[in-house]
Design goal:
This protein is an alpha+beta fold and about 575 residues long. The chain is built from 18 helices and 19 strands. The strands form four sheets. A seven-stranded antiparallel sheet has the order 1-18-17-13-12-9-8. A seven-stranded antiparallel sheet has the order 7-4-3-11-10-2-19, with helices on one face. The structure holds 6-diazenyl-5-OXO-L-norleucine (DON). 6-diazenyl-5-OXO-L-norleucine (DON) binds next to loops. Its EC number is 2.3.2.2, 3.4.19.13.
């Protein structure tokens, strides 16, 4: 009898959403549709988003529902214990940039990760309780909701169901969980749903009851269901047990920052990007600005000439990132100068197509003081809204610390600060005073949610995880589409490369064309072959003369990423 009741309950769960079965689903890399699409890191999250679009929600509704679902089905990076950035363009052409990046707790200080001899202790900025900044995601979701149509209670329900009743995990998730199992035990004060001593395997059901209870508090009490009351108390109790700094006041004081989007022109297209405290928008403006007048298309896609030019541009942009960029609420950043055409022309004055540049001689530009495991989702709807969100816990599963009783992972975002000048963070990024730790300051990010407009309407919705490789990935997909006219799947799926000033090496994916790689090596570049660079989610929207939409949604072929539409 009990078994039959359980089966009936299961059928209700599956039928209620009608669009997907959380215990049986497959991955689809491409959708060509007319009305709306969601591309995200997990099939169930993309399906949750499209179900919301079909119920009359707009791209903001779908973004919220997808993000909340990712917090359940993609715990390595989907989150409510992390932060992120949203770039959107509405049907009325309003350009929106929401910064819900984590903040340093009020008790944080510049040298908090240095031992008594002044040595940087990256183990503390990267793992466990002290690595966490004050989470921003839930505040960000409620700020996003101002542009949505459906009640928040409806948008969060699929995530609650997935957490409470469980879902089948993919093989990649099983492997990732197993690889982090030791850390889950080491960095937690109590056991949690991610720990399975016998090990996880593909198809196992992951049930997260405590997370479901937290999501219900958010459903019932709104933003306060996370930043105050029971959830806040559980976070602070976890901090006390594990030596972290986040207090009730830190949580209560957290707010999304609504910023002005970074807007630039490129050969008739408008690029809408994320401003500081993400470095993404500035880096994209710099890199596109440096390439614009060089007719890169003449060299051909992945030719040594084109790749070398792009590498040298990446070198220069990242040298500026290390020197100048940080939270503008705390430090002056000369954004106007860094992105001005004259400055970018000067930056390329010493470019030599016959030999490799050097990060010893090519450092940051000269500026006189001015009078300044992440996951991405791309969404669009039938109304003309487009939303690009990158959100993260920083490393895979963040600090690996689950808030006991609340069932969600906390970020290890404090490592994105420059914990000591000259000491690289986990992505090899360097920084100076501009990105030093200070109480309540936001740490510099590389996340680069980006929207390109053509004739004033959303044309490309782009973004990816991958730490410092994110801006160079977005840069490459922009050049692949706008200059080399690649199809969207080629633009996303073809191998990528990356240079970030220091270390002075060119990273290439394993399947990067060997002849170009060898030619660059022969010129004197140090090449390092590495695993996948990012997990890119892209949408291209075209309109015919009668404004009928054709939407191409492409999920990266580098992971479980899934494109869904209708
Ligand atoms: O904000 C940043 O730049 C990093 N915390 C992003 C980390 C990331 O992309 C991890 N994904 N692989």
């Amino acid at each position: 009898m009990r078994k039959i009741a359980a089966l009936l309950l299961l059928l209700v769960f599956i039928n209620a959403e009608a669009q997907y079965n959380p215990y049986r689903y497959s991955i689809s890399k491409k959708a060509e549709v007319k009305n709306g699409a969601v591309v995200s890191a997990h099939p169930l999250a993309s399906k949750v988003g499209v179900a919301i679009l079909k119920k009359g929600g707009n791209a903001f509704d779908a973004t919220i529902a997808t993000q909340l679902a990712l917090a359940v089905v993609y715990p390595g990076a989907g989150n409510i214990g992390g932060g992120g950035f949203l770039v959107a363009v509405t049907a009325k052409n309003e350009q929106i940039a929401l910064d819900y990046r984590e903040k340093a707790p009020a008790a944080a200080s510049r040298d908090m990760y240095l031992d008594k001899d002044g040595n940087a202790q990256t183990n503390l900025s990267q793992n466990g309780h002290l690595a966490s900044g004050v989470p921003g995601t839930v505040a960000g979701l409620f700020s996003t909701h101002k542009y949505a149509k459906l009640p928040f209670t409806q948008l969060i329900q699929p995530a609650i169901d997935l957490a409470e009743k469980g879902f089948a995990i993919t093989e990649a998730e099983a492997n990732n969980l197993n690889n982090s199992m030791g850390d889950f035990v080491r960095y937690n004060t109590k056991s949690n749903a991610l720990i399975k001593y016998g090990g996880w395997k593909a198809g196992d059901t992951l049930i997260q009851k405590e997370l479901a209870a937290t999501l219900k508090r958010i459903r019932d009490f709104g933003q306060k269901g996370f930043y105050e009351g029971e959830t806040a108390k559980l976070i602070v109790a976890e901090m006390k047990r594990g030596g972290g700094l986040i207090t009730l006041a830190d949580l209560k004081n957290y707010q999304t920052a609504k910023r002005e989007a970074m807007v630039s022109q490129y050969k008739g297209y408008t690029i809408v990007g994320m401003p500081l405290v993400s470095s993404g928008g500035i880096l994209i403006q710099q890199m596109m600005g440096m390439v614009e007048n060089r007719n890169i298309a003449q060299y051909g896609f992945h030719s040594p000439e084109a790749v070398q030019l792009m590498i040298e541009i990446e070198r220069r942009a990242f040298a500026d990132r290390a020197e100048f960029l940080g939270d503008r609420d705390f430090v002056k950043v000369p954004v106007k100068k860094l992105t001005s055409p004259e400055y970018l022309r000067q930056r390329m004055a010493d470019y030599d197509a016959t030999k490799p540049g050097s990060s010893k001689t090519t450092t940051h530009g000269n500026i006189s003081p001015e009078s300044e495991e992440t996951t991405h989702l791309s969404v669009c709807d039938q109304f003309g809204n487009a939303v690009s969100v990158t959100t993260t816990l920083n490393g895979n599963y963040g600090s690996r610390t689950v808030v006991a009783g609340a069932g969600f992972l906390l970020n290890n975002e404090m490592d994105d600060f420059s914990i000591k000048p000259g000491v690289p963070n986990m992505y090899g990024a360097l920084g100076t005073e501009a990105n030093a730790i200070a109480a309540n300051k936001r740490m510099l990010s590389s996340m680069t949610p980006t929207i390109v407009l053509k004739d004033g309407k959303p044309y490309l919705v782009l973004g990816s995880p991958g730490g410092t490789t994110i801006p160079t990935q977005v840069y490459q997909v922009l050049i692949n589409t706008l200059e080399f006219n690649l199809s969207l799947e080629d633009a996303v799926w073809k191998p990528r490369f990356h240079h970030q000033w220091l270390p002075d090496v060119v990273y290439v994916e394993r399947n990067f064309p060997a002849d170009t790689r060898d030619k660059l090596k022969a010129m004197g570049y140090e090449i390092v072959v590495r695993g996948n660079i990012g997990r890119f989610e892209a949408i291209k929207i075209t309109r015919n003369a009668s404004s009928v939409l054709t939407i191409e949604a492409v999920a990266d072929n580098r992971g479980d990423d899934h494109a869904e539409g209708y």
